[in-house]
Design brief:
215 residues, globular, alpha+beta, disordered N terminus, nine-stranded mixed β-sheet, disordered C terminus
């Protein structure tokens, strides 16, 4: 899979962190409302899904109380690093993983994903027990400074309005699997889609065999 661009967030000049902070607050304020915390799932794009934003993607998704959804694409690493994004921010140079393309929405913001025993602080969304998404710039800084080798950072996110994701699933656009943090943080995400497609297809074939649809 080719590396995804980081779009409008990255420019040739210096990026001012104060400007980024205001952008993240603007993007993230509505994302923290009405969240169903701790019940995230994995979406695996079916081969027939041709939308260039989501073709061959694996998305960690959290459903909201109003039947909308927030997700992060987990298998599209870019060629950029936090150090290249913030060359004047010394802690960013310690971040091990590359930046990931998280989705087509909010591409002027960076989000951090971390596994911890407890919430890292205000502005964190609980996706699974011990798995948190940082939606606030100050919290993102904390992850960079305290957990540079453990956190993973994403540019943008994927969003669905009320009922939209449900409709896409019912129309056959996605497989839905349980979320596994070990898969989310694996070091070779480029092969993840192919592996999960095979897993989902085997499961579907088994269910069709054992529980055939009534005609």
């Amino acid at each position: 899979m080719s590396c995804a661009p980081v779009h409008c967030l990255i420019s040739a000049g210096t990026l001012w962190r104060a400007t980024l902070a205001s952008l993240i607050l603007l993007v993230c304020s509505p994302l923290l409302a009405q969240q169903n915390e701790g019940d995230a799932l994995l979406l695996v794009a079916k081969p027939a899904l041709r939308d260039p934003n989501f073709a061959r993607t694996v998305v960690l998704v959290n459903r909201r109380a109003d039947d909308s959804a927030l997700g992060i694409i987990i298998n599209r690493p870019t060629r950029r690093t936090m150090a290249s994004l913030f060359p004047e921010h010394a802690p960013s140079k310690k971040v091990v993983d590359p930046l990931y393309f998280g989705g087509p929405s909010g591409r002027s913001a960076v989000f951090g994903l971390i596994r911890l025993k407890q919430s890292p602080g205000e502005g964190a969304l609980t996706l699974l027990p011990n798995l948190f998404l940082a939606l606030h710039v100050d919290l993102g800084d904390k992850l960079i400074e305290q957990y540079p080798a453990d956190a993973r950072f994403y540019v943008g996110y994927a969003g669905w309005g009320p009922g939209q994701l449900r409709d896409e699933i019912e129309r056959g656009g996605w497989y839905v699997l349980e979320a596994d943090p070990d898969l989310i943080f694996r070091k070779d995400p480029q092969t993840l889609w192919e592996e999960l497609i095979r897993q989902a297809q085997r499961t579907t074939a088994m269910l069709d065999c054992c529980y055939p649809t009534q005609q």
